[in-house]
Amino acid sequence: MKKFIKRTCFYVFIGLLYVAVGEFFLWKLGESVSIEKVTDLQTAGKKELYYGRRILGNSLNTYKFTMFRKRNAKVLVLGQSVTLQFRDFMFAPFQNQFYNAGLMARNVDDLEYVITLFENGEQVKPELIVLGLDFSFVLENNELDKTYSLQMLPEDRATNIESHFNGMQKVFLVGTNRNIPKVNVGFGKAGMVGRGYRNDGSYRHKPEIENYIKTGEYIDGELSEKLQKRVSPFVPPMRFSQEKADRFRAILSRLSALQIDVLLYVPPFSDAFYNKAQKDEMFHPFFTDFLAFQNKLVQEGHNLIPFTTPSKMSLNDAYMVDADHPGEVLCAIQLLEFLSNSATQSKMLQAIDLNNLEELVHGKQHIPISFLRDSISLHLQKPMAN
Amino acid sequence: MKFNSVEFLVFFVIAFLLLWRTSKSLKINNIILLVASYVFYGWWDYRFLFLMFISSVVDFAVGHYLPTSKHKKLLMGFSLAVNLGLLGFFKYFNFFIESTSAFLENFGFNSNMQVLNIILPVGISFYTFQTLSYSLDVYKGKIKPEKNFISFLNYVSFFPQLVAGPIERAATFLPQFRKERVFDYHQAILGMRLFLYGFFKKMVIADNIALRVDTIYANPEEHGSLALFVGTSLFFVQLYTDFSAYTDIARGIAKILGFELMRNFKTPLFSRSIPEFWARWHISLTTWFRDYFFIWFAGINKISTLWRIFATVTLFFIIGLWHGANYTFVIFGILNGLYFIPRILARKNKKLRDFLSFLNNHKVASKFAMVFTFCLLVVSGPFFRSPTIENAMLYYQSFFANASFYVNEYILEIVPLAAGFLIYEWHMQHKSHPFDVSSFPIYVRRTLYVCMILGILVYGYFGKDPFYYFQF
Asked: How many distinct structural domains can be found in chain A?
């Protein structure tokens, strides 16, 4: 039997060698740091750290939900990826009590669940919620209804053995994955170079920002193509769901009952995309219904930043990260415009420092999609004047 | 616990060391083996251990009293009722309720029958058949009842083959728990080879093919005729490599632990007729049905051809249903039963018999027969793979409506792997070990093992996919 064990051990050693080399790279790239540890360090907030795994995968809902539970923010951003450019410094004097939980609640079910946590006292309730009203929330056939659920959080891939083996395969099969970045400002291969989720929960679109600095050009992204090909979120039949709209309004009522102030945010589209989409026979009627819903909410007295496109604000598409993601500068401008012009009753909204926002928006230290507050790579250390 | 998981590897190392450390005391050895088997099964859901235990106790007691009892039929009926009752409740209850409800609604009755939230215990179709075969064999006087309760519990729960077979027979398997096991280096090496080959087949071939098959079956309407044909062809290669991989691993583990399990496959994809396919596919199940059902049922009327056709179709109806409580499996089974008609008619028709014999034996014709048999399987395949009849019909509809020779790159890139495997199988079809490399020089063998290990690690699929037959 000893001979058998000896022979088997030789082959086990081959396997272990592979695992050791693979794990070394995953560790060196910061991919195998658990969400628990990342969120501990990010909530400590001593320095800006970015979370962006490229090899193991982000387990995003779990990450965002863990941060949300730990931060107990006074100002909370909820919604899809379109809300991810609201940043802490825009909400002075609450910048240290802010968390952007964008991409955590991805459908009406998730929103209802989050409210239930507040109602049951399982989570400290915020005083202000910036709630991104994404059109997908009231889409009758929303794929995100089936694929995401806050009540079934994915396992953290850093603590999952199978994910590690998948990660090792990527390390061995894709040569570029083995390149260890020279800078290290975060967790995960993308996070290390500063592409990922910041301590305040917002997302840094590093390549897009760098691209703009290099070329000065706006990139529309894949949204037009998705509409043309009728793929998610534009899956036919694209119909407005009154049932979901009613549930959304019920959510607003529940928040009101909890005495949480709400600022609704209907995200913009780039002009390039919106002009095309307006001519689309499936999108146009749906979006007309969606805008009617938005207007009804305004009539009902809700604080709401309405749908727009950059040209309607005398700006251009360069203020968009891509067709449906506004840049942080545009978000700040929209917020400033709303706070300056509306007669909101919300004490939290009234307390937001307008001078700070004015300085941000009218300051020279930014490009259309970024305030360039993160400075890690050489060419970003000297921000361009607007 | 899944074979393709890290926890199983740890579990197996512990079991291996403990079992060989105590091999000199058969009693202790069998107790450790039993504990290992119950831990293995309980890892998935410990509550269902009780079910397996009940099934074992009933058949042990029935077997014990059968030889001396005056009410043999009653006792056998009790064993059948308990085992089939458990299987029926956990596997078919909701199916029965839904079918009855739909039937009543067709006649205008408003039935308010409620389905239950029942979890299907893993491996129930396998171990109930194994324990039933024991009672049936004792009833027929083919074997004597087992006296040692621990041995019997081990016979029902032996962990390598517990969840997906092979379904062993008491006559050959039970005696292996009665004799002291001695470590045999040669057998252990053969077992290790089966183990490695099984993992390679499952993780590199079956799972990578499964990813492609899944994309086709998720949206059949988006694919052309050729892609759909390739998709179902690949599905059969997936199904075979997946299921035979489980058997290889099970047999490999058993060999390492000093046991011998039966062969469950004999290169079935090279069959020259559907009857031959079923004689070479999942042999432990088909022989079970042959011995305990078909011989009796077909024997009711040995002369009538029509009765034999009916008996065969009934047999395959049951085999289909055994796979799952779904009409898709029923249709798949019936179709395969109907494929037997030429063979049945040939019993009384010399010309047809000669023709079938020519197809079987002629060098060139037999190759055509192989391709034709595979095509017949592909025709019935969508019923086996699709979750509902509607999905299967959509598959056929798309096949005829989307006449196109286009197959996308993602699917095509796996074809060489599947073809390579079939070429390898062709060369191995007459060997007793599916991975027979004993004639190779030692350095070639070792290089091959290292390549296979690295192949699994670099190209294997590490996901949540359990073995396909776990669902049955």
From this structure: 2
Please report whether residue A32 resides in a domain.
yes
Q: Residue B65 has what pLDDT?
A: 94
Contact check, Cβ <8 Å, A4/B454: no
Domain co-membership, A213 together with A288: yes
CB-CB neighbors (< 8 A) of A165 in chain B: 457, 460, 462
Distance from CA of B460 to the nearest CA of A (A): 9
Please give the pLDDT value at position B115.
Answer: 65
Give A 71-100 residues with CB within 8 A of chain B: none
- Residue A197 shares a structural domain with residue A327: no
Q: Is B323 annotated as catalytic?
A: yes
Q: Which residue in B has a C-alpha nearest to residue A9's C-alpha?
A: B13
Whether complex ipTM tops 0.90: no
Token pair 């251009």: residue: A316
Mutant choice from B445, B462, B465 vs A, greatest count of A C-beta within 10 A: B462
**First vs last C-alpha separation in chain A:** 76
Q: Is B441 helix (H, G, I), strand (E, B) or coil?
A: coil
Nearest Cα to B472, choosing from B164, B194, B205?
B164
Residue-level pLDDT at B109: 73
- Between strands A203-204 and A196-197, the pairing is antiparallel
Question: How far apart are alpha carbons B462 and B203 in whole angstroms?
Answer: 7
What's the pLDDT at A319?
94
Amino acid type, B266: K
pLDDT at position A383, please?
A: 47
Q: Which residue matches tokens 């069998």?
A: B30
Quote the pLDDT of residue A228.
Answer: 93
Measured between CB atoms, which of A14, A163, A169 is closest to B450?
A14
Q: In the prediction, which pLDDT does B471 show?
A: 61
Q: Which two tokens stand for residue B252?
A: 């490999």
pLDDT digits (tens, 9 = 90+) for B152-204: 999 999 999 998 879 999 999 999 999 989 999 999 999 999 999 999 999 99
The DSSP secondary structure of A214-268, one letter per residue, reads HH-----TTHHHHHHHT-TTSPSS--B-HHHHHHHHHHHHHHHHTT-EEEEE---
Residue A386 lies in a domain: no
Across the interface, of B188, B450, B463, the residue whose CB is closest to A162 is B463
Provide, as residue numbers in chain B, all residues whose Cβ is less than 8 Å from the Cβ of A162: 462-464
Domain termination residue (choose one: A175, A201, A227): A201
* Percent of chain A surpassing pLDDT 70: 97
Range of weakest confidence among A350-354, A363-367, B79-83, B368-372: A363-367
Q: List the domain boundaries for chain B.
A: 6-171, 187-471
* Portion 429-468 of B in contact with A at CB < 8 A: 449-450, 453-454, 457-460, 462-464
* Closest residue in chain B to residue A4, using alpha carbons only: B185
